[in-house]
Every structure is written in C-alpha cells, then in structure tokens.
Structures
1.
Amino acid sequence: MVKSSVLGYPRIGADREWKKALEAFWSGKLEESEFHSKLKEIRLNHLRKQKEKGVDLISVNDFSYYDHILDTAAMFGIIPKRFSYEGGVVPLPTYYGIARGTKDATASEMTKWFNTNYHYIVPELDGAAPVLTENKPLEAYREAKQELGIEGKPVIVGPLTFLKLSKGYSASETDAWLARLLPLYVQILQELASEGVQWVQIDEPILVTKLNDADLQRLKTIYETFAAAAPSLNIMLQTYFESVESYSDIIALPVNGVGLDFVHGLSGNLASIKAVGFPADKVLGAGVIDGRGIWKAPLREKLALLEELAEIVPADRLIVQSSCSLLHVPVTVTNESKLLPELKNALAFADEKLDELVLLAKAISASGAEFEDALEKCDTALQALKQSGERNRNDIQQAVAAISVLNPGRSLPFAERHIAQQKKWQLPIFPTTTIGSFPQSAEVRKARQQWRKGEWNNEQYANFIREQIDIWIKLQEEIGLDVLVHGEFERTDMVEFFGEKLAGFAFTQYGWVQSYGSRCVKPPIIFGDVAFEEAMTVEETKYAQTKTERPVKGMLTGPITIMNWSFVRDDITREQIAYQLAYALRQEVEALEQAGIGMIQVDEPAVREGLPLKEEDQAEYLAWAVKAFRMTTCTVQDTTQIHTHMCYCEFHDMIDSIEAMDADVISIETSRSHGELIHSFELNTYKLGIGLGVYDIHSPRIPRVEEMTSMIERALRVLDPKLFWINPDCGLKTRGYEETIDSLRNMVEATEIARAKHSLQV
Ligand code: GLN
Ligand code: ZN
C-alpha cells in the first residue's frame, strides 16, 4: 500500500489565529500560559485535520512559535552574545528578542528561505559552543501520540543546511562547527529511536544548490554518523524547491529514504532517476503535489508520473508527498465566497492538497476504475478554468505575442537621452527626490476603511486623497526637493492596487501565507490574461502636477514585482505572464505621458526574488525580466525620464542586468549595506542615473546631516557626480509625519553641502 506524506503544514491557521495569538502575546494581552495553550490548540487542530483526512505520515515539529530555523538555533542554544543568554531552554523573551529586537539588542538578520517569500532568522554562530537545550522533535512526537494517537514523523532541519544558512563563522571553521553540532543531532536521533519513532524527516534543501567536494564529504560524514548512531530509525533525507545536484552521491548515503521534488525539480530529478536508477534498499519520497502553488493538481498526469516512477522504484517503496512543506500556501479554499466558480473549483490550498495526496496514494495501488469519478471531476474543474473567458483573451494574447518578438528599447541611447532630458528639466546637480510613498497615517487608513465600507462615496474619498496630495506637494516644495511625488495615499499595497485595476487578477478573502514571523501576506492571484482596462494612476498624478511647477514623478509597480508577489497561473510560462503585465503597464506609462507627466518611476523591488536557484537558469530569467521592464518603458519620448527603484542589497551579482534595464535613473536601497554596494561599483561603475539611498527608512531615527554627507561622499568616489541623485532608500509610508519632514530637511541640507563642494568640479 502506497503511503502519503506531508512535509509540513501551515502554522497560521485558517483565520490567522496563530498570528493573532503571537501579536496578543507580544502586546501583553495574552499571558504566557494562555499563549502556550492557544498555540497548542492550534497545533493539535492542524494535526487532527491531517489525521482525519487520512494522511499516513504526518509531520510533527513543523510547527513553530516564529520560525523553524530560529527554533533549531534555539534548540542548540545558539543565541547571539548580545542577548546575554545563560543556558537552559531559551526563554520566550529571548527567543522573540532575537527575532524582533529588544530595547538593548538588535534583532538577528532575516533573509529569504531559498526562492520563496518566506523569511527565516539567520543563526549567528558567534562563539559559544552549542548545547542541546531541549529535544523539540521528541516533545512534538510525544504530544501528537499522547493527545491524538498520531504516530508522527518528526521534522528536523539537517546539519548541512543549518550550517550553510548560518553566519558568523568563516569557511575554515565549518568542520569545527559541524563537529560541535553532530553530537547534538545524534542525541536527538537516539532519543527519538528509543522512543520508538519510525520515520524522521531531515530537511536538506541545500542539496538542490551546487555543493563542492568538501560539502559532499561533510554530507557523507553526517549521514554515516546518523546511521551508525541510530540504526533503527528510518531517515528520510528530504530535499525540495529544485532538483538535487550530485544525485549519485545523495542516493549512495546510508539513509532509508530520499525525498525529491517532482514539481519544481521535475525534469532534473526525473532525468537523474532514469539515468542512474534508484537503490533497492531505499524509499523514494515522490514530491508530486505542488507545495507552493495554489492550483489543483492534474491528478491524471500525477498518476501517470507516479506510474513512471513505479517502473524504477517498486510501488511499495514509494511515498506520495507534497513537493515541500505546505507552509507556502494558504490553509483552505472552503471559506472563499467571492471567487468566480471556475476559479474556486480549480484551486487547492493546504487542506485540499491533503485530499489530493491521500487520493493519489490510494489510486496508484487501486484499479483505475475505482477513482475514475474523482479524476473526472478534477479534469472538469481544470478544463472549465482553461476554457474561461479570462484565459482566452485573444486580443491580449495576439498583441503580447507581437511585441514579444521585438527587442524593446528606447529610441536613443542613454547618453543622448540624458542630454535631451537635462535640457528639458534643468535639474540642479545632485537632484533630490523620494521613492514614492509618504506616511500612511491612521487618518489615511481610516479614510480608506470608510470608503471601502461604503460610508464614504467615491467623491468624498477622492477629495480626501486630493487634500493629502495638497499637503505633501506643499511640504515637498518647502523642504526643497527637486522631483516631487504625489505620495501614494490611495494605495494600500503596491501590488494589490494595480491588481485590483487590471483584468486577470483575483483576490481571496482568507488566502494568507506567512512571510516572516507574524507577518502574513495575501498575494493576489493572476489567473487570467492580464489586461489594461483604464488608467490607474493618472488622475492623482495629474492632479499633483497641477499643484506645482516642479516635475511630479508618476509611480507604477513593475511587471516582475507584480508577478513575483502574486500567485500565478501555471498553464503559461512566467515569462509570458511578465510580458502580459508589461504590455498592460506600458499602456499606463503612455497614459501618464499623454497626461503631461514627464518622469515615470516603475518600481522593481522584487526582481531579485524571482532569481532561480540554479545558477544555470539565472541568466535566462534575468534576460526576460530585463526585457519586460524595457517593454514597459520603451515607448516614451526621449525627454521623458524613466526611473526605477529596487530594495535590498544583493545587487552586486546582477548589476549588468540592472544596467540593461536602461532606466534613466535608478534609486537603490543601500543604507544598510552601503559599503558592499559601493564596493561593487568600484569593480564595475554604473553608467546611468543613480541615487543610492542616503538614509535608512526602516528606522524612526532622524539621520543627521553629517551621516548623509559621508554617505554621499563615499558614493561620489565611485559614481559620476553628473549622474548622481540623492534620496532616502525606500518609500516612506511606514514612517511618521514629523520624522519624515525632519529627515528630508536634513537630506536636503546634506545635498546643499555636497553641491557647494562639487559644483565647481562638474
Ligand atoms: N514606490 C514605493 C513606495 O515608495 C516603493 C516601495 C518599495 O520599494 N517596496 O512605497
Ligand atoms: Zn524600496
């Protein structure tokens, strides 16, 4: 009988009860003991659900109080020195302090979990030897067994992945750290074995990235040690998010099962298994149900894939799995009441995926006819969406196909455009600007609520927005900024705002996923052909421009960012989706230009996020991402100045692509990693207009003039003063009113100092 297995279940709850509990605890509204019982209740509910659905191997220890990497570090007593931890089980205030900062100590860094939108807390291996503070997987196993009679499968982050994701040590110390961690892992596994645990899932997603020989040797050491220490325990060595590198080495390890992703790593993993085969003494965890996507699985295709695998691995050694933890999808489709039926019927969130897994596991060992109804129903649902009007907009498909074969670009090269633009705009040296949004005060949020609830009509809301624009245009003039913005008061979220106005998008009511800690996002769903319907930003931008003589910069979110922050359809490629978005946004760019807006910023903060894990796939992605940006912006006049903005610092490896976007001006978030970025410009200077953020908008602190002056001076050592802009490092919507004004005043003062110093030289 083929078994089904889930690699992890979302923590947040169908109604985000987990998030609410965390936040209530943080704000002191929930006592620690009540908090623990609340989380236990949530955790058991999730396990119970999986049991009721009939999942065979249910993960335990996938639950977390914040993040599973932080949990692993805490379990090993790996606490940054600044938190003055004194040993023993890590107290909650320390645990949350590492994640969120305390008044005495800054939080640990947070970063993206592979290529997902989940963020983990980066462990800091800064000295103290690790110790086992508690055996979390064992506790989770016992709880599931005692409370629900579930024979759980503890999940643990593997040592190699844990080490690779940690920082604070040098490459030469890797083996020393491994030697310190291994005995702790061994103790965990031995305790699990003596408890009678059958399967343990050790997650090593790092195995889908390229490993050098030393790492492969470490891998061998790790799993040989485990096999020798706990021979009775079945270890499922679990990988996900891509196909594994070094397949032959991995299947030769002394583990009892290897879990592979047959969704995101389908072609690579399938090719490896066919070419090399699969050892007769191991179980294959076949990740065939997409743990990251929101669509119903085409069950017939999945069965065929499983049958193909069963030719290599006998069915009794196959486990049908989700491709990765279900952490990355919302909890359930059932409560959605506002979606088009053909869309709703084609969706499968976590709970629906449990049903799919169980069904596939049964269907593969049953006679075809038995499950025919279920397969038929699935076909019908997917077919209905495929045939829906939203997916068959011939006008859009033809227009996009026609422009996709062209090589989009501005009519003049940058150097010539720059001259034309200078002549038209007459900007001073070091023009100052902001990134787009101004503080979204309680008043702004309240106004939007009133309008959404129908308490305010469109006219009242529009008037309110206009008043905000008036206030901030005046303020920007007073402060002395050169290029103004309208402030984005009408937008909650930079993707949602456009998604609501473009065709092809849908919004769920409860489709939340965890982004980091208690922060959840509700990504829009791009389910149909994306199309421009009517101007989206022209009214507010044009209005702002009537209030000032200075240029007002229009503000759009770029195609790649909209795509990367949405769930997308999987019947066409991401590249095609990006071009559809680009074509739609280009119509907005043109509408702005027609309305007399001569500077237009197309934000692309999320380009880096879509970068494929496999190095060999990255160039192709970057090429079409750049093309989509150029497609969006290439039709404007030479004198129209295209701006873009990007967040985060890891740009050194993609500066060429950023340059190829050919934006007249880019503003980059850099103040937290200024040194690094400056260094990359030393190696490869940037030849277009550029503003390096001169202060960090993530902190309420008002930057001093001298701090910004020194940032500016450092940047000018490597960047051309004639192309240099001065701006904060990101949008100001999360900041307060007073602090924003004071910070910007200081920024303008720093600019004047720089102008006085450099004007003569330019
Ligand atoms: N224009 C957006 C803003 O100012 C950009 C936000 C971002 O970079 N994430 O808010
Ligand atoms: Zn930003």
2.
Amino acid sequence: MTTNKKKLTTSWGAPVGDNQNSMTAGQRGPTLIQDVYLLEKLAHFNRERIPERVVHAKGAGAHGYFEVTNDVTKYTKAKFLSEIGKRTPVFIRFSTVAGEAGSADTVRDPRGFAVKFYTEDGNYDLVGNNTPIFFIRDAIKFPDFIHSQKRDPKTHLKNPTAVWDFWSLSPESLHQVTILMSDRGIPATFRHMHGFGSHTFKWVNAEGKGVWVKYHFKTEQGIKNLAPDIAAKIAGENPDYHTEDLFNAIEKGDYPAWKLFVQIMPLEDANTYRWDPFDVTKVWSQKDYPLIEVGRMVLNRNPENYFAEVEQAAFSPGQMVPGIEPSPDKMLQGRLFAYSDAARYRVGPNHNLLPINSPKVEANNYQRDGAMRFDKNGGGSVYYEPNSFDGPTESKENKTTSYSVSGIADSVSYNHDDHYTQAGDLYRLISAEEQARLVENIVNSMKSVEKEEIKLRQIAHFYKADPEYGIRVAKGLGLPVQKKV
Ligand code: HDE
C-alpha cells in the first residue's frame, strides 16, 4: 500500500529519526547537547508568543468581500468604490479592548471593528469600533485613559476607582460612557453589532474636490445584546463565546453581513456646524447629514490559521488609498503614527510582507532589508531614487489634496466644550426600561469606587446631561445629588 504521509523533518528539512525520545548518554545518562533537534524544538517553543496588542488583545477574524451597491463616485475616486457590483476582498478582526489575549469575550467594553480592504490601489484599513464615538478626543490622553482601564500596578486587579476617576475628570467621555453602560455595552455576538469608522475622514473625487465623511456599517443580523447576568455566566462557562459564534456561523454557511453607509458633509460646513466635526466624542445628526448607502460586506471564510492570519494581522488607520484622506481629528492624527509603530514592535519592521498584511497588488518601493525580510528584497533592481534605471516613480495624480492651515502653534483644546447635550439626548432617546438598566449598570460599576469625591463629580456630569439621569444615579448610590462639577 502506498502512502502520501509526509516525513517529519527539522525546520531545515532534514528527516527526524526519533520524535519521542531525546538522546541521552546511556539509559540513565544526562541529555546530550548534540540532540540539536531537541534543542531546536525547545528553543522554538520558547519563542512562540509575540507581544499581545497593548489594547484589543482578544479578538477573532474572518475573510470576506465588500461589494459596491451605490454610486458614490461624485464623492470619492477610490477605485474599489468606483462601480456598482465591484467586489473587493476584505479581512476583518473583531475584538474587546481592555482584556488580555485570553480574557472573556462577554464583558462590558467597546468592540473593535477593524476592516482591511485589499484594493487595486493597495490596502485600505478602516480601524473602527462598534460605537460611533470615543471616550477622549486627543491622542495625548490615550495612554492615561488605557491605564485607568487596565490592571492596578499593585493589586493587578481591574480598578473601578481609576476608571471613574479618569472619566469624572474627563467629561468629554460622558457620551461614550452612556453608550458603554447601556444595553449595547455587551453585544450578543460580534455579528449582532454595528461598526463605525468613528472619526471624520476626507473623501476626494476625480476632480480633486473633497468632502468630510463618516462610516457606518449596519448589521444585517440585527442588534442583539446580552443582559449582564447572562454575560457574566457565559464569561465563566465559555470565555471564547463570541470567537466560537463567529467561527461556527461562517463554518455552517450562515455568513454575517453588514451594509455600509456614509454621512457626507461639505468641507465648508466644518466651519459652521454646531458640533466640531473633528471631535470624535460627538456624532453628526443624521437629520443634518443623512445616511447614504455605499455597499455590503459579507464574511464567508474562516482563517486557516489563527496566529498567521489573526494574531499577525496589522491594521493601521494610516493605510489609505487615493480618494480617501485623513481629517484634522486630533485622535486620528495620533493613530496615524501609533498603529504601524505598534506593528513594527509586535510583528517586526517587515510585518507588511506577511501574507495577511501584504497588498494583493505589487508593492514597489526602495525600502530594503530589515529583520525577517523573507521576500526577494527587491532582488538586483535599482535600490535608490531618483535613478536612471527606470525604477518606480511617484505619480503626481496621487498626491493628497492640499488645504490651507493658519494659526499659532500651541497645545489647544477643541473650541466646543458641550459634553452634555449629546449624552443627555441619548439618555432621553432610549426606552424607560433601558434607562433603568443603564442606571443600574452605572450604579453597579460605581459602587466600589473608593473616593466619594469621584462619585459626586461623576453624578454632577450625569445631572448636567439630564437632571433625572443624575438624580437616579445618585439615588442608586445613596448619595446626595451633585448639581455642579
Ligand atoms: Fe486603537 N490601538 N488607539 N483605537 N484600536 C490599537 O494597535 C490607539 C482608537 C482600535 O484588530 C493598537 O496594533 C491610540 C479609536 C482597534 O488589530 C494601538 C489611540 C478607535 C484596534 C492603538 C487609539 C480604535 C486598535 C494596539 C488614540 C476606534 C485593534 C496594538 C489616539 C475608532 C486592531 C495595535 C486589530 C488597536 C492605539 C484610539 C480602534 C496601541 C494611540 C478611537 C479596532 O496601536
């Protein structure tokens, strides 16, 4: 009988004679250093882990496609959006934010919603969340914010005092805190939540005319959430519940899908709109800027290998394609730096050569060498520019649009400081039952805060958003209503 069974080899391809017994000096003698196969096996095992993502460490990924369903060419020249019916392969990674790589899926936390479009003009990454806004609006506050969400350096426990201390001293977080503490804070699965680009971006059309844009992925599965007691039970019984749900749904052909919409704002409106459109803690009213359909995303293929495709996936909001550009949002500006920097540390300087990260089109540039340069490294081709050897050159039509800036270089805040109206609007929008659950979730989270001063300060924020909101939280905590911060 012939067999196709492959021979076990070392990593350099030599057949292995024994994979059960290490080589010793005699039956009871010590292990021999000449058993290099054993040495290789143990040494490689020691190096199996790469640093987990400092945030969004726990996640699940899937492949699929994006299909254009509406003509948006008057707003953007992005080639992957150029024709109705056009399909572009995508890879998505969903995640929680604060927990470690092995932490439970069903916790109260925003969810990452990171999409990589493999377009003919290179990769476009839209690295968003399942919330349209964020807790802070300046990148300089991000490390402090995340510290408050992570483990206490002494106890190594999550620390509600730090969480509420930071939030109460950063009132721009109030709107996102209200979303987080609402029913949507614990999605039922990754499939039952919307996705958002959150920031404002710029779209530019073939004539070079720009507009401001916000992205909304609407789940076709409908929104479903988990009650906190059920979520806590699942967290204990099956911490990988969301990971498993996504994998199984795709495996059995129940492909999750989202419709992509955008809000479009004329550039000049940014000077007059009642909210600062670059402040990521605020939404644009859909009455002012209605949703415009763009396309549909379907996830229809599971990764073959988790580490290769999901753990090594590197997303960056800085990876844009012609027709899509950044806005001056101070959070987005910081993110343009942070993600590729994180990838160089976590995966390596040539992370973009890995199959999951590399574009489906040829990348032609003069970058050479670096750790783990495992492609042909440009071979013998010309390795500097400008050159007289017909090497790749810039294409002026792909320059980003110019715009004028003025002012004094300074560390300044946004002009708008109303952190209360939109949070209050959200409180008033949800049903009476959800309001009650929102207050209960907040009270449960705040009751172990150590300093009364922090609780009172936070109550004042809720009160300013809506007096009833503040009164109910104060009552739940057994504290007096604090009306002023
Ligand atoms: Fe992230 N974020 N972030 N973030 N973020 C990371 O990137 C960071 C922010 C988001 O599945 C890190 O490769 C800064 C907003 C997602 O691989 C890191 C700031 C939004 C993911 C990082 C923000 C996000 C990350 C961790 C403030 C939603 C997971 C390691 C300026 C719009 C992507 C890494 C994946 C991951 C930094 C704020 C979403 C450290 C500095 C706002 C979905 O680079």
3.
Amino acid sequence: MATRPSPLTPVDRLTEEQAAAELKRLARLIGEHDRRYYQEDAPTVTDAEYDALRQRNNEIEARFPELIRKDSPSQRVGAAPARGFKKVRHAVPMLSLDNAFSDEDVAEFAERVMRFLKLADMPAFTAEPKIDGLSMSLRYENGELVTGATRGDGEEGEDVTANVKTLDDIPHKLKGRGLPEIVEVRGEVYMTHDNFLKLNKRQAEADEPVYANPRNSAAGSLRQKDPSITASRNLKFFAYGWGEMSDMPAETQSGMMEWIDARGFRINPLLKTCKSVEAMLKVYRDIEERRAKLGYDIDGVVYKLDRLDWQTRLGFISRSPRWAIAHKFPAEKATTVVNGIDIQVGRTGALTPVAKLEPVTVGGVVVSNATLHNEDEIARKDVRIGDTVTIQRAGDVIPQVLGVVLEKRPKSAKPYKFPDTCPVCGSHAVREEGEAVRRCTGGLICPAQQVERLRHFVSRDAFDIEGLGEKQVQAFYAEGLIMEPADIFTLEQRNRRARRKLEEREGYGETSVRNLFAAIEQRRRIPLNKLIYALGIRHVGEGNAKLLARHYGDLDAFLDGMMAAGKGHASEAWQELNDIGGIGEVVADAVAEFFKEKKNREALDRLLDEIEVEPMEQARSDSPVAGKTVVFTGALEKMTRNEAKAQAERLGAKVSGSVSKKTDLVVAGPGAGSKLADAQKFGVKVLSEDEWIALAG
Ligand code: IVH
C-alpha cells in the first residue's frame, strides 16, 4: 500500500517520500486554485482554505528544501494572465504579501525587521486597509497615463489601458510640475457594495449571470472588451504604492503616499503611521470595527516599513517583500450544510429562493440564511438540500451561496425543483420569457402582495379613495379589516364592531370614519379603465388599461375576452388581445395569466358584487373608421405598426391581424403579401399609408 500522507499528518512526521508526494499534490492543487482565482474570477475555496494550503506547502519546503519543485507555488506569483488582452511586461514585478493571522505574527514580523536591520528601537510602519479588489499598475510617462496593466502572473499582466481610463479615480494626467519622467502608481481597483448590488440586480433582470462578490465583479468589469461597459460599472481605485520611478520624490512610504495623493489619486483615508506594535494592532482593530460600514470589501490591514532605504535593505524573499505584511481578518467565508430551500415572495410577487443553513459563524456573525438569487442560479450551481456549500458574507450584504462542495454531497441529494406555485397563496407562478424571476400570479389574494396591491388599488390613478392611504391600508390589513379590494366596500356594513374599532384608532375619530365611508361610497362607480388599472396586473399601467378598456368597451365584453384568452395563444380571444394596438405578447400573456388564476377571478367577482363599472367612454364614433375592422400589412413608413393600431382604435376602429370577409379596410405598405391577396380575394377596400393618414386625420 502506498504511503499516501494525509493532509493532517504533522509536517515533522512526514517521510521524505511522503513530503515529495504531498508537494506535488499541493503544486497541482494550488496552481488550479490560482487559475480559478486569477483567470476565471471564480475561486472554489475560501481564502482561509487557500492560505492553509500555501502555509502547508511552505512548512514542508522549509523542512525539505531539497524537495522544492520548479512548479512550486512558492516559486511564482498568481497565474498566467487571461487571454484576450495585449500582454504588458511589468518594469518592476508586481509581487504579493506574506500574511499574518494573529497579533503574535505581527510582533514577530516587527522583530524580524529589527533583527535584520540590527535596530535597537522599533521603526515606524504605515498601516492601511488591504482592499479586496485587483491590483493595477498605472504607468505615466512625462505625466501622461500610457498604460494600465493588471498583475497577471506578477511579471506580465494584461493591458487594460482603455478600460482604466474610464475610472474617475484614475487621472489621465498627473497633477503638478517637475514630475519624474517615469511614474508607476500601483493600487487596487474595486467595486463598492452599492454598485455591486445594483450591477447584480441589472444582471439578474437581464438574465445574465450574477457575480459572486464585488472582487469578481470588479475583475469582470475591468476585463471587458468594450470600455463603455467598464465605464458603466463605476469602478473605484485606491493607490497604495508604486512600481518603476525614474526619481524618488520622498524618502518614506508615508511621504510617497502623500506625494501620490497630491498627484490626483485617492489614497485610503484610514492610512496611519505607527511607532509600536501596539499602535499597529490598534489600527487593525479600529479598521476591523469599521469594516462593515466602509461600503467596500477589505480583507485585512497591510503594514509597511516607513523608511524606504530600510525597505531596500530588507528586499524580497521569494514572492513577497520582507518589509511588509498583510494582517488578515478572520475569513468571511465558511462552509455549512443546506437544511432546506425556502421560497420568499416579495411585495411584487417575485419568488426568491433562500438557503436555510445550519447556523455558522462568518466573520463574527451567525449566518443561517443565504440568498440563492433565482431559479437559474440554483440550477447553475446545482445546489441541493443536504449539500455542503461555501457561503460568503461581504459587509452588510445578505450572505450568498458561492458554490457546492461536491465531495460532500450525500447520495440521497436530489436536484432541486423550483416550485411553479406560490408557496404563500398557492396561485400558479410564471416566468416570462427573458426574465430571471418567477412571479406569483395571485396578485389580488396573495398575502405576500396584498398590502402592496391594496395600496395600488386605492391610489390616485386607480380607485383614488381619500383617507385610505398607504398607512391606513397597512393598519387595516394588520387588523384584518381589509384583506382584499372587496373588503373596502363592505367595511361599513360588515359590522359595527369594525366601526367601533375604527373610531378607537388614534387620530381616527368619528368624523374621519364618516368621511372615509363617504369617500368609499363615491367610488362605487368607476370607469372600466380605472378598474383594470387598479387590479395591478403586471405590465398593465394606465396606458395599457385604457387600451384594453377602449378595445372591449364594457365590463362584460372585457371579462368574456379575458376568460377566453386564458385558453392560450391558439385561441382567437388571445389573438384578439395580442392584436390590440400597443398591447403585444408580453402584456397579453400577463393579462391572460392573471385571469387564468381562479383565485383572482373569485376576488374580482366579490369586488364586482360591490361596485358598478362604467363602460369606457367609447372611442370616437364620429370618425369615418368608427366600428370598422382594419388590418395593417406590409411596412409602414410614417409611423410604427403599433402607433397605427393605437390610432385606429382611438378612432373607434377594431384592428385585426387577419383578413376575412368581415374586414372593412386593409392598409397595405410596401412588401404586403398574403393579406393583400386575401383583401383582393374578398373584395376588401385597400388603402396606402398616405390614404390611411388622410382618412384618419
Ligand atoms: S502593498 C509587494 N497595500 O494585496 C506587494 N497591497 O497580497 C505590495 N492589496 O497584489 C502590495 N490592498 O493587490 C498593498 N493597501 C495595500 C493593498 C494591497 C490590497 C493587494 C495587492 C497585492 C495583494 C498582495
């Protein structure tokens, strides 16, 4: 049996053979993680897990220096840059930082520096946040920005000059005179939490993949081929150092940072100079305390020896400077088990999946829920109940599931099936084409949406009930007095108890109650378009409500049309709905879905028992096309097809999509085909676009 070492075998007990095998495994593993992190922006392990692998690699190499491999992670930095951008060779390599995880590590670092330099007294160090973004090197020649390059493998990065030029924080020209001919400013490009959330919302709405965290989205935003996309992402930049300098304008780290600041960059406002280890640790704790409120991700504090001549003397060891160290915060990522997946229903009916987690501490906060964004995200990550997942908490942002630890998947775990009914009210939930979000269609009766729907129902452009604003709706709903629209109209007669309860409400005396009932009474008659608008059907605003009302004319025709349209795209009724000028498929589907839901129809019936619906003020009946059935075909040049349809309907015409014996007029533009032929066959009058305009005025 081969002596395969367990990763838990203490380093001092490894045989040489075992050490060699493990170094090989670590080289491959860390290389793989580097590639995922640097090139794909899709790490699959937490920073802490990654750090632990490197730590073990270093420890084994320290014990068996003769076994250090050429491909060892200690011998290189990062991974080769992603393809697609021009390569840039860094004049001065971009290296990385050694890590400290405890106060003792920091004290040891300071002692190491003193020992190396043979100092008797503690030297000064700067301390500043370690920004969790991506490093960038900006090269200025004679004060002009010539190149912006990513770190890449430290030796060679990607040329993203056009993209970095779109960042407000990056000057195209350095401020001041008498500048060194060559100035390379280095720092971190990052995305704020606000912008990250906005971007992911846009991505989800457009059915594009959402980013796992601000760092990945900053990297993704910077690696765009089209700089205008980078510009729209609102990236930020903090300068923290420099690369090649043809002249050194200062003698200390802090002096250099002041100089860079004066050249027009942002340097981190939390940067401090410290004269003792205690002072360094105090900065660390201060920054850690402010971390959640900074609005951007940081993952530690970087200490740098202040005197530059001493930095030079200390130099570098393999991939990191001896004069600096990153004091990391405890990881804000963790792994835990998914106990269940809950579907939450938002005020607008959106179904959002939430992972119910075995509680776990992430960066000092107990987390038991994490968002899974939407249906596609669950499918993409293949998250199943029972899975062990990696979760991440960034600042105050809702924790999210990064991915599944597949090795830990229980055999019994089954792919998650997203529900197609609303978990709150049982109505069917639909997903529109091109939408990432599935929504409950039970608008009128779904408790999750009711308050929002009621608020809309009584709003100014709908039923416009004075004295029944958002606050009152909320309160009445909470007290069980008004649960659905019909309840508004039965409130008074329902019972005296309600009346007493109302009068007892603070600031809601007898007069207010009387006024409210009077206002409700006044709205028992309502025009059809206002009723349709008040129902709060998705995509049906005031304009579309008017189009519908005008087309069907009265309540009965409207309801008949809607019930029949629910039978699907093949039905004539759906076609008719779809053909209404200005309506179109998305709206037609949303309306049909609404009426397909029995619970909505029942709630509407209850409402209609209470109110009287006025037919829509008929479209003009004095126009030459009133009452006529019109078909548009071919290309229109002076208006869009939708405009033409809407105009015809305003004039009282009925617009149809197909020509039959019943058609009165066909308006044919260039390219008209079979419909024109049909018109000729049935002897229907044909007009050109200009003739139509002349007729319609
Ligand atoms: S100083 C020789 N200061 O951390 C390297 N780095 O692990 C000197 N970083 O690639 C780096 N904030 O992208 C420095 N305030 C800061 C930083 C910072 C973030 C990143 C940087 C670097 C990585 C090192």
